[in-house]
Amino acid sequence: MLRLAWLIPALVGTVGGAWAAEPITIGEINSRTGVLAVQGTAVHEGIRLALEETNARGGIGGRLVALLSRDDEGKPERAIAAAEELASHQRAVALIGGYGDSLVGPVSEVADRSRIPYLATASLDERLALRGNRFFFRISSLASYAKVTTGIVLEVFRARNVAILYSSTPGASQLARRQKEALEQAAVRVSVFEPFAPGLSDFAPLLARVRDRGADVLLSDTFFADHLLLVRQMAQAGVAPKAFLGAFGMEFPGVIRELGSASEGLYGTTAWQPGVYVGGNAKDSQAFTEAFLRRVGREPAPLAMHGYAAARTLLRAIEAVVAGGKPLTGEALREALVRSDVETPLGRVKFDDNGDPLFYERVVIQIQRGRYVVVYPRERATAGARYPAR
After folding, report:
1. Which of 30, 237, 278, 389 could be bridged to 97 by S-S, CB 3.0 to 4.6 A?
2. By the 8 A CB rule, do 278 and 361 touch?
3. Do domains 2-140+279-349 and 143-270+363-380 have the same CATH topology?
4. Is the CB of residue 244 less than 8 Å from the CB of residue 389?
5. Is 369 left (phi over 0), alpha (psi -120 to 50) or beta?
6. What is the CATH number of domain 143-270+363-380?
7. Is 83 in contact with 71 (CB distance < 8 Å)?
8. CATH number attached to the domain at 2-140+279-349
9. End-to-end distance of the chain based on CA atoms, in angstroms?
């Protein structure tokens, strides 16, 4: 489904006023329906808040910033169609959004052909940054996931036998391989290393291998819904590793809500969420949370910050182009993004030569007494890790 233009604030009294100038159009592509609707909606809400704040301050150079939102429904062909429409027909100055590389990858190719920047909000496939696409930038990267998930196994758990189950998606597969290499280099046995198709309904055979091979730790490189099913089927099958660590989506509040007491002791990773400030600071994070509460009526999901930080960075680059008196072209905006160095509640956003973030960080969290606490790295921990978890 295509979303109509979203303008903030409403265009009241624009004739002859400050908003008479043509708005600056940004194209957003996210999954607002389909299997990734929860993730895409969270990203969208963060992007929308950043634009709202900019327009409330007077826009950029006296021009309103308009967001044209498109729903890719979690389907690559819809993402491609939306990107082509926004770039060619709507003449968006840039594209933003995206959760999952099967959607981000195709959009990045359209942006490259159209010569406009694309700032992806949740992308991990390392190949995307190595294709020579000068217009591709992203907020997240794989390296921090690998660093903290293997670091806690080696430094805190000191496990000798680890199982890795992973979704057969690009980012998850790459993370699993990096985990396996790092653990085996440290003489840790990886007794189970198995891929599975996203949306698998029966994990019993895989969990039987985890149990039969005596794994102390289960690293689950998959997504929110798969984690919920895995944890439920672990209980049914009597599989009880000393630690279950899910790489993606375990930070979502829905984990505690859906699993209840079964969520106690589970591990995940996060870059930001209310009360957890990894790369940013408490003051800015609290301001974002309060603004989000006023706007949406509930606390932001962790992915909302990825959308917010990406939009803040893109808007700052647009401001730089306009302030420099240059035409707002794709090339000029790309150059401004290359030079970007922006402090956000997510942390410092600056890109390397491939468009990857230089300072993206994640930490390991554990659910203790029904709330999330940071347990790794030690210098950022707010509580000690409970290991074994139960």
Report:
1. 30
2. yes
3. yes
4. yes
5. left
6. 3.40.50.2300
7. no
8. 3.40.50.2300
9. 45
| Domain locations in the chain as residue ranges | 2-140+279-349, 143-270+363-380
Structure letter (DSSP) for residue 143: H
How much of the chain is helix, strand and coil, in % rounded to 5? 45, 25, 35
Map residue 286 onto helix, strand or coil: helix
Sheet containing strand 65-71, edge to edge, reads: 2-7, 65-71, 24-30, 94-99, 118-122, 136-138
What is the DSSP annotation of 318-366? HHHHHHTT----HHHHHHHHHT--EEETTEEE-B-TTS-BSS---EEEE
Q: What is the pLDDT along the chain (390 residues), one digit of tens a residue?
A: 444 444 444 343 333 344 458 999 999 999 999 988 989 999 999 999 999 999 999 999 999 999 999 999 999 999 999 999 999 999 999 999 999 899 999 999 999 999 999 999 999 999 999 999 999 999 999 999 999 999 999 999 999 999 999 999 899 999 999 999 999 999 999 999 999 998 899 999 999 999 999 999 999 999 898 999 999 999 999 999 999 999 999 999 899 999 999 999 999 999 999 888 888 788 999 999 999 999 999 999 999 999 999 999 999 999 999 999 999 999 999 999 999 999 999 999 999 999 999 999 999 999 999 999 999 999 999 999 999 987
At residue 40's C-alpha, the angle toward residues 354 and 260, to 5°, is 115
339's tokens: 């030079």
Residue pointed to by tokens 């039987």: 208
Q: How far apart are CA 191 and CA 281, in angstroms?
A: 40
